[in-house]
Amino acid sequence: MDDSQVPEGIDPKFACRIEIIVNSYFSIIDGKKVYTKGRTVSWVVDSEEYAIIELEKDIAQYFTWANNQKAIFWVVDSRLNRTGMLATDSQLLDLLRASQVVKLFMTVGAREEGHVVGEATNDAPNVVDKGANVAPSMVDDGTSPAANVIEEEMKAEGFEWAEVPTYGETTAGPPMAEEEEKEHFMTFGCDPHGDEPAGADEEWRYFKKVDAAVRESKAAEKNAVEVNKRKRARPIPEFDTECVHDDEAGARDDYFVPYTTHDLENPVIKEKDTFGDKEEFIQIMRTYAIKNSFETMVEHSDKTRYRARCAAENCEWRVYAKKLHGGNTFMVVNLSSLDDHTCAGSATLTGHQASTSWISRRAKDIVQEDPTLSAKKLQKRLQTQYKVDLSYFKVWAGKRAAMNELHGTWEESFTMLWRFKAALQEACPGSIVEIDCKKINGQMHFSRMFVCIKACVDGFLAGCRPYLGVDSTHLTGKYNGQLAAATAIDGHNWMYPVAYGIFGKENNANWAWFMRNLKKAVGTPPGLTIHSDACKGLAYGVKKAFGHDAEHRECFRHLMANFRKKFKGEVLKYMWPCAWACTTRRHDALMEKIAADCPKAIAFLNKHHNLIWSRSKFSKECKIDYVNNNISECFNNWIKDYKDLPVDYLMDKIRQMIQEKMCTRQVIANRLEGVILPSVLHELNMKSRGLHYELQKSGPLSGEISGTTKEGKTWRYAVDLEKRECGCGQWEVSGKPCPHAIYLIGKVRQLKNEDFVHDYYSVERFKMAYQFKIAPMNGRSEWPKVDVGFEVIPPPLQRAAGRPRKRRIKASGEPGKRGPYQCKRCFQFGHIEKGCTATQAELEQELPPPRPKKGKKARKSKSEDVEASTTVVEPTLLPHSSPGMTTGRATLSPISPGVTTRRMASLSPISPGVTTRRMASLSPTSPGVTTRRMAAISPGDISRRIIIE
Length: 949
Description:
Elements: E1 15-22, E2 25-29, E3 32-36, E4 40-46, H1 52-59, E5 69-77, E6 82-85, H2 89-98, E7 101-112, E8 115-116, H3 145-156, E9 159-161, H4 169-172, E10 207-209, H5 213-228, H6 247-253, E11 274-275, H7 278-291, E12 296-301, E13 305-310, E14 318-323, E15 330-335, H8 356-369, H9 375-386, H10 392-407, H11 410-427, E16 432-440, E17 443-452, H12 454-463, E18 467-474, E19 482-489, E20 495-503, H13 508-522, E21 529-532, H14 538-546, E22 551-554, H15 556-566, H16 575-580, H17 584-597, H18 599-608, H19 630-638, H20 647-671, H21 678-687, E23 694-699, E24 702-708, E25 714-720, E26 725-726, H22 730-734, H23 739-747, H24 763-769, E27 792-793, H25 840-843, H26 862-872, H27 902-907, H28 917-922, H29 932-936
Parallel strand pairs: 1-7, 17-27, 18-21, 21-22
Antiparallel strand pairs: 1-4, 2-3, 5-6, 5-7, 7-8, 9-10, 11-15, 12-13, 13-14, 14-15, 16-17, 17-20, 18-19, 19-20, 23-24, 24-25, 25-26
Helix pairs in contact: 3-20, 8-10, 9-10, 11-20, 12-24, 13-14, 17-18
């Protein structure tokens, strides 16, 4: 280690660098959940006097965590494939004295009495990370091992079980129900009181912040005892982190050479240092050169030798390394000191030293942590860290190499799908995995895939409402396609994934194949409802697979997006209330207003949107009153960061996310008590406030509820608690009492709101939905090998020219949508030139007439023109002009040399080229009306856009 890197007060002889790789973690600070991104930090310490408590204080300068959390340090040796937790000060001192660079791995766990979450033995460590996927088990109470693991993970993030959940819009719905009889005509494009929000990651509502004051004091006492018991013994370490056996050398004569440990970020190389192979030596040498601000030039390189010098001319710096006998070990034979450099260093180097392989090694950890990081951001990050200029294309190639090393190539991923199918069906028997191929030119190309886990189907049929939101989202990887999913809803209005799959394009064949497999998995339970967007071929697929066995709803938000393209004005304000109407009477009344305002709208809806989109037409068995397919959008947003992964990793990643989601919610289900979910009861209690109605009883459990709206309109609804019906229609559609029924329930003694809630919202149903276990799967290398019988070829690469789009094109009316586009071909708004459908006849139509022509002026003679031009360019009038310049004054000359501007063309009687409207209005020799066709074939090099000025 260089003496300049050693801080004051530390003897260079005993100096040692500690490098800690910190894993990302969550903390609860000031009542907020804070995410801390992991990174690598390092500093120099004294190997003779250093303890774990000092290590915690030093790392606290870079990271912060909650009082109920604690830093846990691990010793990792990838060569010996062993990991151990750093438990004592003596173990730390042994590591510091054995090497100049000590590498540790740090996680943040929860403090416990005598136990820290994530603690493990040195022989078989088991680090429990927050992102680990732990399979739940079948339990009857909340004390099962799976429940304990999840609760410990939540405590590690600063939460513990809350007796009363944190309610919000997702769990409780709107604070007050909108009166059905109120004329709540919406503003255009607004949906203030439509569907109840749907949630994907709402489990945190059942946990609260941990009060760690007592734990903090006990942990401090424990640390003080540890410091008092600190010993200076120096036993032999359990394993040497600096020396390992070389495979080839051991196979020959058990001879091995110890490898020198180097800091990969700040390496210090000296003579006699050894490296595992030549590639490792070259990569470390590149980092060494970049960190010391010089570039190398290779003089000679082969399998056994490497010789290089400084790239600057007349510089004396040299390095020579060779391969040792008996293995692949490379050793530095000669190395000039940094003081031997006679060249000047540079603050920022060129990218010569940073090769694609060097960038790939640096980017591997970065993209593994954040696969969505773009090459541009990665380029900026590496340039800032290493002070070197990097080409964007080199960074892109390095990132691609890192992704291929982590996830394999795209071509291999399609073959791995059969191994994924075998592994999933082996771990979860009964799961349905279908893979379809298409034969093109004698080769079998991958076509589509369907995945449905057995536990998801069983939970859906046992505990969820018979409702499935079906939609697809674009894949953003190398091979374009669609990721389709069928998503259900549990009693909390939480997203419940049932099935997912991939295929090429949205067409009738692909959606019919997907829906047939979905029917094969879930069957046709009573009251089954399928909610879809305006996807191409989806309506055909639902009808082909389910026929009349399922109710098919259409997303009203997409319907309105199409409706606004055709119709404008007052008719729009009736559409959303018409969709929200729960009774046929109100629906028909609003439809009459739509027909009166715009008769063509009714014909348009009957022809193009003949599916169910109004609550008045909904089935009373489903008990879901959603008019929008929001639950599918929740799933698409849930997996959006992984849509560019290879297909086998994408399928496995979604399986892992579902597995973790099921496990966490099973813990919540096992801790819930009572009959109805607490979030539903909270919603009903909120609706019961501020109700000022009048009641006319007709029996013990029936009556008439009446009142007056703010507009002065009177209304009245009949309520029958025994039949669970109300004249407004809300109760029958949603399965939860409407405000009118809640008012009557409050007037009858010994009646509770929970007695009139449908069984779909019960705690028992919620437990049944999450009672099944998704068994864990081994890694990709352990998946069963499958002989497909033919070579699987990736689907044909069908991509448009240019960079693939990562973000979807927003529809009209969405936030962030830019203004209308203008076509450069026909000059109309709403589309671009690529998608222009204007015919040749339309393009040749005459433009509107130009301005009236002015009177003709007498033309000057040639001699007068020459005299005028000579007068213009006098040196006295143009002192700064030159023979090669044309000033603004020269625009008055009809024979001025050089380029003719528009202004010159408008004033010149002999102007060549096309005459625009502006030119026609000023020029006495205008050729007449200019058409679009003339502008298209004009040789005058004048933009066609000026025609519409």
